[in-house]
């Protein structure tokens, strides 16, 4: 397959997903980018659930992200929580209503319906190939990879079976290591 065809394919898939998301969100009065911010924050760990994290993940300016977050906060979909140790840091947490909306539209129904028709082997291969493609593109652009904490080179187990971040020198819970992190580095 040529790179041009691959690009067209990815753009078509993105277009179908965007169209489906818009249809799902029309009753909520939300824009797809606002949903993307919510979806990111639902998966982001405590080092990443900040306005800066959203800005880096979405590849948007701080000003644009600030507008997006204001809408979500005014709609009661997320709330600001000051960091317990550093009052300059603000964490962004989804409210129950924010989680409800996200659960209704993600994964996109059109993708769920298509995925049900694929074999587990095909789905697994798709996941692996797309993950590799994303990783290479992020490396080429020197973007942060925002991957799951459990696979990070700074993540080490303790003698008691818990997790420890060697970068921040803080313990991590079993729930936290399933989340994504802006500081992730591949081993
Ligand atoms: S181990 Fe890596 S991914 Fe996990 S919190 Fe530390 S820097 Fe982030």
Which structural class best describes the helix and strand composition? mainly alpha
**In total, how many domains does the architecture comprise?**
2
Report the bound ligands by name, code or SMILES: iron/sulfur cluster
Please bin the fraction of helical residues. Answer: 40-55%
Would you count the extended β strands for me? 5
Note poorly predicted spans.
Answer: none
Percentage of residues in DSSP E strands? 5-15%
End-to-end separation in angstroms reads 30 Å
Number of DSSP helical runs: 7
In this structure, how is the largest beta sheet organized?
3 strands, antiparallel
CATH first level of the largest domain: Mainly Alpha
CATH superfamily of the largest domain: Winged helix-like DNA-binding domain superfamily/Winged helix DNA-binding domain
Indicate the CATH topology of the largest domain: Arc Repressor Mutant, subunit A
CATH architecture descriptor name of the largest domain: Orthogonal Bundle
Radius of gyration: 18 Å
User: What is the chain-wise order of helices and strands?
Assistant: HHHHEEHHHEEE
Average predicted confidence as pLDDT: 92
**Overall body shape:** globular
Fold and architecture overview:
51% of the residues lie in helices and 10% in strands. It has 7 helices and 5 strands; from the N terminus they run ααααββαααβββ. The model has no long low-confidence stretch (mean pLDDT 92). With 187 residues, the protein is mainly alpha-helical. Strand 4 (163-165) and strand 5 (170-172) form a beta hairpin. The strands form 2 sheets. It has a 3-stranded antiparallel beta sheet, with no helix packed on it. The protein has a two-stranded antiparallel sheet with strand order 1-2. The protein is globular and about 45 Å long. The chain has 2 domains: 3-117, Winged helix-like DNA-binding domain superfamily/Winged helix DNA-binding domain (Arc Repressor Mutant, subunit A); 133-187, no CATH class. Bound molecules: iron/sulfur cluster. Iron/sulfur cluster (SF4) binds at residues 45, 47, 149, 152, 154-155, 165, 167-168, 172, 181, 183-184.
């Amino acid at each position: 397959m040529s790179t041009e065809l691959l690009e067209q394919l990815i753009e078509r898939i993105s277009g179908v997903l965007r169209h489906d998301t818009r249809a799902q969100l029309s009753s909520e009065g939300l824009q797809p980018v606002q949903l993307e911010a919510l979806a990111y924050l639902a998966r982001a760990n405590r080092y990443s659930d900040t306005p800066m994290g959203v800005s880096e993940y979405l590849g948007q300016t701080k000003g644009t992200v600030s507008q997006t977050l204001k809408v979500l906060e005014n709609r009661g979909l997320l709330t600001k929580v000051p960091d317990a140790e550093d009052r300059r840091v603000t964490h962004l947490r989804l409210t129950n209503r924010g989680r409800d909306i996200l659960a209704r539209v993600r994964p996109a129904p059109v993708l769920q319906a298509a995925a049900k028709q694929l074999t587990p082997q095909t789905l697994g291969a798709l996941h692996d190939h797309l993950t590799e493609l994303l990783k290479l593109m992020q490396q080429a652009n020197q973007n942060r990879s925002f991957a799951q904490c459990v696979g990070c080179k700074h993540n080490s187990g303790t003698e008691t079976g818990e997790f420890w971040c060697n970068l921040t020198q803080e313990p991590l819970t079993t729930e936290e290591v399933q989340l994504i992190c802006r500081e992730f580095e591949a081993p």
